[in-house]
Amino acid sequence: MLINLINPNTSGSMTDCIHQAAKSTSSPDTMFRACHPSEGVASIEGYLDELVAATGVIEQVLEGEKAGCQAHILACFGDPGLDAAREVANAPVIGIAEAAMHTASLLGHKFSIVTTLARTLPISEHLVHKYGMTAHCGGISAVDIAVLELHNPESDAYQRILTACQAAMNNEQADVIVLGCAGMADLTQRLQTALGIPVIDGVSTAVGMVEMLIRCGLATGKRHAYAPPLPKTYGGWQALC
């Protein structure tokens, strides 16, 4: 099966990190079209970034449809452009925040989200509500590390994330930790070993979900909310015209 693995920012190194995380848990017969937009923002850390990134997501979803991809994964914890992507795609589309939260709700009474910058906390709070996870989410915390600094040894990212996870376990009674950034994916197993509880990376869980959907022959329902866009001219978007 062929999965369109979309990094919504323009960082090639982040795309490589996400691709490695996806391959580490995928089935042997799964292949990925790992990609990022041709234009956009290098990291997504606020509402404007998400708005700009969403157009690049649609670009890559359309390219993936042309390439014969059987599913699409949006590998940014804000799930930018998810609903619009479901309108334009025939194949199923999964966002990593959506995948991570639903998986976490199956593994414990409460989960906590640990993310990057404090300015993104309202975005995660909105998604918790949107995905019906208010009763399951014990809290959301930020380690105040920029996305592109996660792999900088001087940022001490692992230790700061570990400390935040331990605080969530002690103060929020978290049974499960959800990592709130695709760039944290490579820390998942190390954190899980140190904490002794499930640690959820949305990239790997989204891969498992779309593999299941493909095998079951399931795709997005297109009758109402996710019906294809109405015929009209989209300036600069010839693929949609």
TrEMBL record:
Domain of life according to the entry: Bacteria
MF GO annotations: amino-acid racemase activity; hydantoin racemase activity
Record's catalysed reaction(s): a D-5-monosubstituted hydantoin = a L-5-monosubstituted hydantoin; D-5-benzylhydantoin = L-5-benzylhydantoin; D-5-isobutylhydantoin = L-5-isobutylhydantoin
Enzyme nomenclature, EC number: 5.1.99.5
Top enzyme category: isomerase
InterPro entries found in the cross-reference section: Asp/Glu/hydantoin_racemase, Hydantoin_racemase-like, Iso_Racemase_Enz_sf
Family: Belongs to the HyuE racemase family.
Protein name: Hydantoin racemase
Record organism: Nitrincola nitratireducens
